[in-house]
Amino acid sequence: MPHGLTGWKHGFLHLAEIKMHYVEDGDPSNPLMLFVHGFPEYWYSWRHQLKYFSKNYHVVAIDMRGYGQSDKPEGIDPYDIKFLIKDLVEATMALGHSKSILVAHDWGALTAWMLALVHPEFIDKLIILNVPHPDSFVKQLSTNWRQFLSSWYMFFFQAPYLPEAFFETMDYTALTDSFKSLMVNKENFTEEDAEAFKYTFGQPGCGLTGPINYYRAAKRRLCTAPLGIDKLIEPKTLIIWGEKDAALCIEGAIDSVTRCKEAKLVRISNASHFVQQDTPELVNNYIEEFLNQ
């Protein structure tokens, strides 16, 4: 096992439909700070935040369904957003808390946006990293040609088997190379980090079918049920955005602020889509400042 994966406290939550793996630190009697990763990541993406915030919070980073050591339901339907939302609600309660400071990135952030819309009572404060509000994204996808072109991989992921084979045949080197090539501060994604990612995704039964099924399930929903969300996000919200994001346009983040009752957008000029790994110190400082307000 790579050195970066050792020395952490692991656990499992037995939710209604899945067994969810998580890593935790800090005093469980402190407020819950729940970290939810994106694609193609897992709990380890939050390594810098777990260490930093454990002194004041009960910090927990989960593996979403389909990832890491969490269960991986077969098929596309189990990855519909309604199940992802349900997992976060059940995880919060299973950890012994009634609400959380929810910190989320990419697919985790999309799930967090939706949780804030349908069950805001489970969120104390909402911290979103590099994903727009779902209606803001749909708006950009349909009106912003740059966003449409940047979303090419979402269409590629609709193909059966081919996306998984692309990563698997190269021993997931393409996955770790994508972090290295896209990140601005490449020294913050070390060889040890790369080995941790390749090790986790290369474990028997892991792979990328579950993670890619998130995109396949999303396309089914968009084709059958437009979002049509017409209410504001209630929890106080911080949006942190790495401006060198190659997949998502800043216009979506700007529009997202208008969809919240109270929100602040912080832009980091020298960070990529993987902002919490690219500029961890800045991200931690902005989160801490937001929590102390």
UniProtKB/TrEMBL annotation:
SUPFAM superfamilies in UniProt: alpha/beta-Hydrolases (SSF53474)
Keyword Hydrolase: yes
Pfam families tied to this protein: Abhydrolase_1
Taxonomic superkingdom: Eukaryota
PANTHER family xref list: EPOXIDE HYDROLASE
Molecular function terms, GO-annotated: epoxide hydrolase activity
Protein family: Belongs to the AB hydrolase superfamily. Epoxide hydrolase family.
Stored InterPro entries: AB_hydrolase_1, AB_hydrolase_fold, Epox_hydrolase-like
Positions of the AB hydrolase-1 domain: 31-276
Protein name, entry field: AB hydrolase-1 domain-containing protein
UniProt organism field: Panagrolaimus superbus
Keywords recorded for this protein, A-Z: Hydrolase
